[in-house]
Amino acid sequence: MIHPVLRTYDLHKNYGRLTAVDHLNLSVPAGSIFGILGPNGSGKTTTLGMLVDIIKPSSGYFEWFGQKPDGAIRKSIGAIVETPNFYPYLTARQNMKIICDIKGQAYAEIDKSLTLTELGARQNSRYKTFSLGMKQRLAIAAAMIGKPRVLILDEPTNGLDPKGIAEIRNIIRNIASEGITILLASHLLDEVQKVCTHVAILDHGKILSKGPVEDVLSDSPLVELAAPDMPQLKSLLEKENWVKKFQEDQGRFVATLKEGFKVEDVNRELVAKGIFLNHIMVRKKSLENYFLETLEANA
User: Fold this and answer.
1) Residue 83, pLDDT score
2) Which of 72, 102, 133, 162 is deepest in the core (most CB within 10 A)?
3) Cα(150)–Cα(76) distance, integer angstroms
C-alpha cells in the first residue's frame, strides 16, 4: 500500500474559546507541491506548527509516511515555520557549518544546498549584507541540510519584491524536481496558482475546498464578452440561465458559466437571440476568483 506523505485526522487546536484549526483532514500526495491557502488568521501557521511539533494539538493526530511521527521521521522533514536565526557577522558558509553541526551532518552537503538556492557566489558574504530574498534562500538552504524527504515552508515569499518572489518560486520547483514533497502555506493566491500542484483553501481553521490546482480551477469557465450594443448584451446576460453571474471589467463583461455549459456554446446561444459579439475570449480562472467565491459560498 502506498501511503500519502502526510495525512491528518481531525487535527484540532483551540486557544481557550478560540478555534485556530477545526478538525482538519488533509492528505498530501508524494512528490506534490501542496499549498495551504488562506487569509491571515485562517490557521495556516498553526497547522504547520503542529506538523513540526512546535504546537501541541488539542485533539486529533497526523501521520508522516503512514506512521506516527518519531525522531527518525522528524529528521526527514525540513521546515521553515518560525523566523530562522543566523549570525549576522558570519558568512553564509560559516552559518551553514553551524547548521550542519546542529543536525549532525557532513559539511559536504553545504555546496549542494547553496547551489540549489543560488547562493554559491555569495557563500563568503556576511549574512548582514544579504537582502531579504537572499536571507530567505539561505533559510531554505539550511532546511535542505540532512536531505529531507519533505520541505515545509510558511509564507516563503512574504515581503519579497517580484524578483525575489520569482527566485523563490524557481527554487521550489527545482527542489520538487528532485522528488521532494513540499508543503507550503501562503496568502499570495497568484503564487500558489503558479507553483503548486495541489491546494487546500482554509478559513477560520476549516477546509473549504481542496484538490489538484488544475481541477479546482477548471470549475465554472470565465468568458470575456463584448458586443456593439453592450446594454442589449447586459440585458440578455441578466436573463440567461447558463450565466451563473457576470460583472463589467474594462468595458467588457466577464461571465461565469454554469456547470455543464461550454464556452463554445456561448456564441451560438447569443447569435440565436440576435446578439453578435465583437469580442469573445476564455479567461483562465484565477485562484483568487475561486478563493473569493468559496469564501462567499461558505459565509
Assistant:
1) 74
2) 133
3) 7
**For 112-152, how does the pLDDT look when each residue is reduced to its tens digit (9 = 90+)?**
999 999 999 999 999 999 999 999 999 999 999 999 999 99
Domain boundaries, given as residue ranges, for the chain = 6-217, 222-297
Torsion of CA 147, 152, 154, 160, to 10 degrees: 40
Sheet holding 243-249, edge to edge: 243-249, 252-257, 222-226, 279-283
Give the CATH fold of the 222-297 domain. Answer: Alpha-Beta Plaits (3.30.70)
Q: Return the C-alpha cell found at 251.
A: 468595458
Measured over the CA atoms of residue 34, residue 37, residue 43 and residue 44, the dihedral's sign is positive
Q: What is the CATH number of domain 6-217?
A: 3.40.50.300
Angle 210-117-287 (CA atoms, 0-180°, nearest 5)? 25
Q: What is the DSSP string of the chain?
A: -PPPSEEEEEEEEEETTEEEEEEE--EE-TT-EEEEE--TTSSHHHHHHHHTTSS--SEEEEEETTB---HHHHHTEEEE-SPP---TTSBHHHHHHHHHHHHT--TTHHHHHHHHTT-GGGTTSBGGG--HHHHHHHHHHHHHTT--SEEEEESTTTT--HHHHHHHHHHHHHHHTTT-EEEEEES-HHHHHHH-SEEEEEETTEEEEEEEHHHHHTSS-EEEEE-SSHHHHHHHHHH-TTEEEEEEETTEEEEEEPTT--HHHHHHHHHHTT---SEEEEEPPPHHHHHHHHHHHT-
User: How far from chain centre, in Å, is Cα 50?
Assistant: 18
**Cα gap 64→4, rounded to integer Å:** 8
pLDDT tens track for 65-84: 999 988 889 899 999 987 77
